[in-house]
Design brief:
Blueprint lengths: L17 E3 L1 H7 L3 E6 L11 H14 L4 E7 L3 H13 L2 E8 L6 H5 L2 H7 L3 E6 L4 H14 L4 E4 L6 H20 L6 E6 L3 H12 L6 E5 L4 H19 L12 E2 L12 H14 L8 H13 L8 E6 L10 H13 L1
Parallel strand pairs: 2-10, 3-4, 3-6, 4-5, 7-8, 7-10, 8-9
Antiparallel strand pairs: 1-2
Helix pairs in contact: 2-3, 2-7, 3-5, 7-8, 7-9, 8-9, 10-11
This protein binds pyridoxal-5'-phosphate.
């Protein structure tokens, strides 16, 4: 397996740092907690989509696309990173934003990632929640193609076998960093949504026989559905890489007990996790993905599923730009704390 055989535009700030979280580890009194800083990939406040876009945008460039189109929820971090990458390459970017939460909050609808999409010169249009958004996007792309535009479409979250290559690479990068400092990783955990991150990681880890179990904390779908999505994409990714059969169904594990009321709706433990990382480590999580992943991590430690003497790496997938769309979620939280 040799990733250099795939077209790629090198733009992310790599390798991202691997750091120990001493104060959080002490506070929880369990395993040594490490963080892989994919919030620091460098593009427009960073995040995990940049690694995927290095491979996806290389395909767009190879077909001489003059426009990229993608889709996501209103506060999509993927949309923001796609808009920034397209700006860097001088391509037009159009984004379909799905109203997945029904929020009428002006900050949710205009601030955070939406503000940044527009600053990067992208155009956006809204869709009501519950549609097949990839189908919506392909239909629109076809009408533009009929007008002569060269449109490259990117699925939600950049999650196809091409995008997942970015996380195969991340698995190699992480294991190499751990090897260089004699760090034995007992567990790797991450938030999992459109599946490309978890699928790419598990293919990379299995391909080099790293022996590191990977746990994804879901943010939307129930466990069975999430695991099926990840496994299917892992199969396609392994096939593309020329190592079919490297991932078994049992390698794909998702825990979807921290989703709460739904996608993009933070729970009390999401807000607590965000506060703990911010106050103890100076690290900003987000209310949609990394906050729920971290809530899962913290709960597993409190329940003794990750134990003293072990080392757990939390992959920070980014998303802090969305905090500016969620100030209202913290207002009640803050009022409660100052009263206490
Ligand atoms: C998209 C995203 C994820 C989930 O990654 P997938 O590859 O879609 O599963 C996690 N965290 C953040 C901040 C994201 O933007």
């Amino acid at each position: 397996m040799h990733l250099a055989r795939f077209p790629r535009i090198f733009l992310a700030h790599l390798p991202t740092p691997l750091e120990r979280l001493d104060r959080l580890s002490r506070e929880l009194g369990g395993p040594e907690i490490w963080i892989k800083r994919d919030d620091c990939t460098g593009l427009s406040t960073g995040g995990n989509k940049t690694r995927k876009l290095e491979f996806l945008m290389a395909e767009a460039a190879a077909m001489n696309a003059d426009m990229v189109m993608t889709q996501g929820a209103t506060q999509s971090n993927h949309a923001r990173q796609t808009a920034a990458f397209a700006a860097k390459l001088g391509m037009k970017c159009h984004i379909l934003l799905e109203d997945r939460t029904g929020s009428k909050d002006p900050n949710y609808n205009n601030n955070g990632n939406v503000l940044l999409d527009h600053l990067h010169g992208a155009t956006t249009e809204k869709r009501p929640g519950g549609l097949d958004m990839n189908a919506e996007m392909e239909a629109l792309a076809d009408t533009l193609r009929a007008d002569g535009r060269k449109v490259y479409t990117i699925p939600g979250g950049g999650s196809n076998a091409t995008g997942a290559l970015g996380y195969v690479n991340c698995a190699f990068e992480l294991v190499s960093q751990a090897n260089d400092r004699g760090l034995v990783i007992d567990h790797l955990v991450t938030a999992t949504g459109s599946a490309g991150t978890q699928a790419g990681l598990i293919v990379g880890l299995k391909a080099i026989n790293a022996g590191i179990p990977l746990l994804g904390f879901g943010v939307r779908a129930p466990k069975a559905k999430q695991e099926e999505n990840v496994f299917n994409l892992a199969l396609k990714t392994a096939e593309k890489l020329g190592c079919p059969g490297v991932v078994q169904r049992a390698d794909v594990v998702a825990d979807c007990d921290y989703v709460g009321a739904g996608y993009g709706i933070p729970r009390a433990d999401t807000l607590e996790a965000i506060r703990m990382f911010a106050e103890l480590e100076g690290v900003l999580l987000d209310p949609v993905y990394s906050g729920k992943g971290a809530a899962g991590l913290i709960d597993h430690i409190r329940k003794g599923r990750f134990r003293k003497g072990e080392r757990v790496v939390f992959l920070h997938t980014g998303g802090a730009a969305a905090l500016f769309g969620y100030d209202a979620a913290f207002a009640g939280d803050r009022a409660q704390r100052s009263a206490a």
